[in-house]
Write a structure and sequence with these properties.
This protein is of the alpha+beta class and 140 residues long. The chain is 37% helix and 29% strand. A hairpin with a 2-residue loop joins strand 2 and strand 3. Bound molecules: flavin mononucleotide.
């Protein structure tokens, strides 16, 4: 069964661009053979990650990611069956922070800061769909 899981977490320290690259590289290496696709946003010390694939594969991967000491306070914001993937062929795309992307992140946030914890599932769908449509995710 094809599902999408979206969760938010907070980074535990100040992650450098190299740390983030390391996470994305490991994700691309590991997710592709699992058939998992998705995207990762990191802004204002908060991660927002979308994982798509077989429900058991995504579940297992999520539990492995939770063990990572680089983040804490994980919260699943969305989990459910989907008809099709948003990120076909993207084992893990990193959403680069630009002015345009910032505006997009805030567009669906209930507060002035990027706060995915407060975002409803429908807003998350809209945000990820827009990020894809506008190709504002670095392909990975
Ligand atoms: C916010 C966040 C998201 C991550 N997402 C993934 C992911 O999608 N896939 C993955 O394999 N590792 C992900 N990781 C990294 C894993 O926790 C772990 O470091 C990595 O899988 C280790 O890979 P390795 O055993 O191949 O070195 C993520 C880490 C963080 C902090």
């Amino acid at each position: 069964m094809l599902i999408r899981l979206v969760y938010a977490s907070r980074s535990t320290g100040a992650l450098t661009p190299i740390d983030v690259k390391d996470i994305v590289r490991a994700s691309q290496r590991n997710n592709a053979p699992l058939g998992v696709t998705g995207a990762l946003v990191m802004a204002d010390g908060v991660f927002l990650q979308c994982l798509e694939g077989d429900h058991l594969a995504v579940n297992a991967l999520y539990h492995r990611i939770l063990l990572d000491a680089r983040h804490r306070d994980p919260a699943i914001l969305q989990f459910g069956e989907i008809e099709q993937r948003l990120y076909t062929g993207w084992s893990m795309g990193l959403v680069p922070m630009s002015e345009a992307n910032r505006a997009l992140l805030l567009k669906y946030s209930p507060t002035a800061a990027f706060d995915p914890y407060g975002m409803r599932p429908r807003a998350l769908d809209a945000l990820f769909a827009e990020l894809v449509a506008q190709a504002r995710v670095l392909n990975g």
